[in-house]
Amino acid sequence: xxxxxxxxxxxxxxxxxxxxxxxxxxxxxxxxxxxxxxxxxxxxxxxxxxxxxxxxxxxxxxxxxxxxxxxxxxxxxxxxxxxxxxxxxxxxxxxxxxxxxxxxxxxxxxxxxxxxxxxxxxxxxxxxxxxxxxxxxxxxxxxxxxxxxxxxxxxxxxxxxxxxxxxxxxxxxxxxxxxxxxxxxxxxxxxxxxxxxxxxxxxxxxxxxxxxxxxxxxxxxxxxxxxxxxxxxxxxxxxxxxxxxxxxxxxxxxxxxxxxxxxxxxxxxxxxxxxxxxxxxxxxxxxxxxxxxxxxxxxxxxxxxxxxxxxxxxxxxxxxxxxxxxxxxxxxxxxxxxxxxxxxxxxxxxxxxxxxxxxxxxxxxxxxxxxxxxxxxxxxxxxxxxxxxxxxxx
Length: 394
Hints:
Layout: H1 9-24, H2 28-37, H3 40-43, H4 60-64, H5 67-103, H6 110-141, H7 166-183, H8 187-216, H9 226-250, H10 261-277, H11 296-304, H12 312-324, H13 328-348, H14 356-359, H15 362-365, H16 369-393
Helix pairs in contact: 1-6, 1-9, 2-6, 2-9, 5-6, 5-8, 6-9, 8-9, 8-10, 8-13, 11-12, 12-16
């Protein structure tokens, strides 16, 4: 154990370089300027992401869509994806601060706290950008929110479309509140939070690197759609945030005493909870581990909207094909899930306080294509039945 962070010059230098570079290349002003210039009318006829990052890409809906409908699905991917990121970043801001509080009592830890202050300011800018653009798009296209939602607290289920219910939501809220409380007074848990943050950011980093390529490879960056530019700036910021998570969770943590049995338990429960959140994969949106049955109502509204203008029967037939049958899109999402799982295993392999089932990501590994399809077939029958019941009572 090292009492002072400065006594570990290598780790301190890593933190210093990451903080200074992030501060030097801070893109808050550039993001704010881009958002202020955003007008959906100016970019509604073009892609905002690489084509494969479109809502329901590679499904029967995608195969039957017109070029303009495909553009809309591409833009809706951006709206849906970054609406999920908003939820994650709201939680990140809160736990950045509780974790910083857990470091206050240690000598030389100001650098980490300053880093987290900068990152939280950047997260607030990201949230404003994503919400401003997404809400403008949905108002123009649907006249109502579809994937966007009112601002939420950090104690809400982070995964926007999860396999949950009122009881599970209540229990999750209690767990998050309790972790915030104890990590604010426990240096090990304050540092270990960054293991979970690192795992969650790692998945985002894998996808967001591909999203950022659309802007980087655009033939005329000055004329590129503003949402694509925001994706690029966000990826650059998150790269620094990922570095912070890695240094704190894998280097700084070794400056502390080994965890107690209680600290190890809480740390392992956090990683296990992350596995549970990332258990599912989605045919609708590659790169976010949503529970598709929770998404059915949203997809139904998209297909009944003027974009597709399908009848009730045609909408349900299309949804059944997209969610209960194999498709290229589903295979791509499953591959992303597997890639994320393997990267998580590498990320945590040297953390000897973790349970074997966390180092092996065994919960995530237990999901499969066949299990997904079986779940969807049962859930979709329930969706159709519930829809008819709701219609009957209206």
